[in-house]
Write a structure and sequence with these properties.
This protein is an alpha/beta fold and about 375 residues long. Helices cover about 40% and strands about 15% of the residues. The strands form three sheets. It has a six-stranded mixed β-sheet with strand order 8-9-10-11-13-12, with helices on both faces. The protein is globular. It folds into two domains: about 110 residues, P-loop containing nucleotide triphosphate hydrolases (Rossmann fold, 3-Layer(aba) Sandwich), CATH 3.40.50.300; about 240 residues, no CATH class. The chain has 15 helices and 13 strands. It starts with 14 loop residues before the first strand and ends in a 6-residue tail after the last helix. α3 runs parallel beside α4, α8 crosses α12 and α13 packs parallel to α15.
Length: about 375
């Protein structure tokens, strides 16, 4: 059992949505924190059939319930019409709900009730270092950070099943994708764009579809929490900058599988790519779990100067290098960025064994950086 860092700080009386990609651990988290509560699991076929045919049964059963709140409904996106009953119970009976799901797409793109802002949104991500006893970086980079995958010695089989049954079947069915072969080609092309600047035209050519279709496919990955865009930092640039976003899959293990990477070993090119992806995952999770919700972007000029991650409104600039011995060459992007913007902290995250200072740049071992990040010493 992992002790999850996600906390529901505003939920003494409030209802909430808890979203997260499949197998991030939502059900385990909720059943562990709320034992004995009224719990509806819509992933079970008999439960799904019962409430899809008669949504009003939910209202009748909740009204008869005399136990502890919140009431939990898992996989709520499977029956969006239940949200009308939930809304009525919140407004008229002050019932508190936790509504969990693996994809908000069906609800967001339907005309169903979104509770009028009466439910706070939370999200559960794959595991972070702070949640894993005896954390192993190479295991994380190879297996990914979905709980079952991280622990397994046969993670590739589990990831293969995940991609086949969830990404290629369930998501395509939910999004009503008819051209299955083009979407499968897109998934592979999107994997090659993982961590990179997205070029819709090039991907469209590779997949044999139009650029608007590629944009729609990326939107499906966002809506189903399988991937997200990292925008370009564009505040009053003095230099010409790249404006297109970068794209990251939600889990490094999924990206590895789609890229057909073999075992990742320290010092390889694949290690460097996966390492940067992993640090991005930790920073993104921290922004949301801490409820600081700071902006996260990247900076790259047309001449090739870049900084991997800009935190907030250029307060913190973070460059990630897998090297074991950083030098001035690795600091060029950070220094160029600091010439253009006033920056509170310039940080180079590496595999160096000990922290160092180079001018106004902090060179931090990755584990020290993450410990400081989760202790709110990097950004407050």
């Amino acid at each position: 059992m992992f002790t999850r860092f996600q906390t529901f700080k505003d939920t003494e009386k409030n209802s909430l949505f808890l979203w997260g990609a499949r197998q991030t651990g939502k059900t385990t988290l909720l059943t562990h924190r709320y034992p004995g509560h009224l719990y509806f699991d819509l992933l079970l076929s008999d439960v799904f059939e019962r409430y899809s045919r008669n949504p009003e049964l939910l209202r009748e059963e909740v009204l008869a319930y005399r136990g502890r709140q919140p009431v939990i409904i898992d996989e709520i996106q499977r029956i969006p019409s239940l949200l009308n009953e939930v809304h009525w119970l919140i407004v008229n009976k002050e019932v508190q709900f936790i509504l969990s799901g693996s994809s908000p797409r069906k609800i967001l793109r339907s005309d169903e009730n979104l509770l009028g802002g009466r439910a706070i949104r939370y999200e559960l991500y794959p595991l972070i270092m702070k949640e894993i006893p005896d954390f192993n970086l190479l295991r994380a980079l190879n297996n990914g950070l979905l709980p079952r995958h991280y622990l397994s010695d046969e993670s590739q089989k589990l990831i293969s099943a995940y991609v086949g049954s969830y990404l290629q079947d369930e998501i395509m069915a939910e999004a009503k994708i008819r051209n299955i072969s083009s979407f499968n080609r897109f998934l592979e092309a999107a994997a090659f764009s993982n961590g990179e600047i997205v070029n819709y035209s090039n991907i469209a050519t590779e997949c044999g579809v139009s650029s608007p279709t590629v944009k729609e496919y990326f939107q499906i990955l966002e809506d189903t929490l399988i991937g997200r865009f990292l925008p370009s930092f564009q505040k009053k640039p003095k230099r010409r900058i790249i404006q297109s976003p970068r794209f990251f899959f939600f889990d490094v293990g999924i990206a590895n599988y789609l890229l057909k990477r073999k075992a990742i070993e320290q010092g390889s090119e694949a290690f460097g790519k996966a390492f940067e992806h992993y640090i991005y995952h930790e920073i993104y999770a921290h922004s949301h779990y801490s409820q600081l919700n700071y902006l996260l972007s990247y900076w790259r000029t047309t001449s090739g100067m870049e900084v991997d991650f800009i935190l907030g409104d250029h307060e913190i600039a973070v460059e990630v290098k897998a090297t074991r011995q950083a030098n001035n060459r690795h600091l060029k992007g950070l220094k160029k960025f600091s010439e253009e913007y006033k920056v509170e902290k310039l940080i180079l995250v590496t595999n160096d064994p000990l922290p160092r200072k180079s001018g106004n740049c902090d060179i931090l071992p990755w584990n020290m950086f993450l410990t400081m990040l989760w202790s709110d010493e990097i950004i407050k």
